[in-house]
Amino acid sequence: QIQLVESGGGSVQAGGSLRLSCTASRYFYGAIGWFRQAPGKEREAVASIAPHSGRALYADSVTDRFAITHEKGATTSYLQMNSLKVEDTGMYYCAAAGSWYLPTLNPEHFDYWGQGTQVTVSS
């Protein structure tokens, strides 16, 4: 079992930045992902990283604005979000894959989920 705790959410004006953190209860080798869900909308993938290689994958909507990082051997991953837009508003969830080792935006590859942290971007 892996417990995940997100932090770093908050309210920011459009164009601003936030850095989200995801801390795991133990080290693991599977992919790490960030997902978000806005009110009334379906959950969507944001970014994913393979901890051992550092290879990352991003949704088109956040490419060149967001960066997911994970230091080798660490239990905390980060999602740096720059040039935030109103449409980035939502609950952000961290996820860990138990047996999928490549970056992936498919939520079915993830076995463990955090409780989420709220991000609100105002105009």
Notes on the protein architecture:
The mean pLDDT is 96. With 123 residues, the protein is mainly beta. It has strands at residues 4-7, 10-13, 18-24, 32-37, 44-49, 56-58, 66-70, 76-81, 90-96, 112-113, 117-122. The protein has no helices and 11 strands. Strands 2, 4, 5, 6, 9, 10 and 11 form a 7-stranded mixed sheet that branches. A 4-stranded antiparallel sheet has the order 1-3-8-7, with no helix packed on it.
Q: Mind sketching the topology for me?
A:
Elements: E1 4-7, E2 10-13, E3 18-24, E4 32-37, E5 44-49, E6 56-58, E7 66-70, E8 76-81, E9 90-96, E10 112-113, E11 117-122
Parallel strand pairs: 2-11
Antiparallel strand pairs: 1-3, 3-8, 4-5, 4-9, 5-6, 7-8, 9-10, 9-11
Helical/strand content category:
mainly beta
Q: How many DSSP H or I helices?
A: 0
What's the Cα radius of gyration?
13 Å
Which descriptor suits the 3D outline? globular
Sheet with most strands: 7 strands, mixed
What proportion of the residues form beta strands (DSSP E)? over 45%
Low-confidence stretches: none
Features:
123 residues; mainly beta; seven-stranded mixed beta sheet; four-stranded antiparallel beta sheet; 11 strands; globular
